[in-house]
Amino acid sequence: MAAELPSKILIVGATGNIGKYITNAIVSAEPRIGKQVSIFTSPATASSESKQAVLSPWKAKGVSIISGDINNPDDIRKAYVGIDTVVSCLGKNALASQIELLKLAEESKDVQWFFPSEYGTDIEYDASSKDEKPHQNKRKVRAYIHENLKRVKCTYVVTGPYIEMYLPLMPTAKEAGGYDVKSKAAVVIGDGNGKVGFTSMPDVGKLVVAALQHPEASLGKILKVQSFVTTPNAIVAEFERQTGAKWTIEKVPNQRLREVEKESWDANNPLATVYTLKRIWAEGGTLYEKTDNEVLGLKPEDMEPLSIAVGKAIRGERF
Fold first, then answer.
1. Which of these is catalytic: 138, 153, 206, 224?
2. Do 150 and 177 belong together in one domain?
3. What is the pLDDT of residue 301?
């Protein structure tokens, strides 16, 4: 497998927020990846009228739709027949279900390569990472892989935060920071000069494709990749440049963010995860001396710049 490109790919979670970008990148890749791409989805999604706008273009490009229940082992076993590579794009609420997917992959005779849904914050960035509450399901998945997988090889594509999801200012979570185009107001954490590494959602797909195209560099590896590094103040400057207006800036001290984070976890507030992740990013948990972009054949100019993400935000484009 190490010397071969994937032949038959199965994507799980293809119609989710990040799954759409990963699937689009895989089915549109040039040169084409593999002989066949399939997606595994629920019968409700497969038959949903609202999902046809997403599914129809993929089917027109030869993608096979396999419908079934992700919690039904027999459905998964059937979906795995003939598949050598599985790409999981499951969202945070379904991450733990990957343990069963991995168990069945290891038991199958066909699956050789598995991409867990690791797109996002590095859960092993430093010694404190193991204690972060939002990391726990991904940690369980990694532990299962380490302890139980012998035949199947895994590749983790760790991208850091998605710039598109980072930018919006949530009225109910102002202390988490963000940018409001309508009022031309920004809330930044700390002094606004702290560097953060981001990946655009289209680039997540591009990076997964690059990993699939370079198995010799990615098989069994933890790949730390990103589109660019910038600061909250530089983001404000880009919004000002593109809107042609001066923005107001409110600063939230790091300590205040920590206080709101603790209060939210104590109150079982679902926004607690947002505060934790924003704090991790603000404290440098996305920065590396060197990323793995180049080992995948990608240069800085191949990635989307900040200006594109800001332009989408100004136009009100949803991810």
1. 138
2. no
3. 97
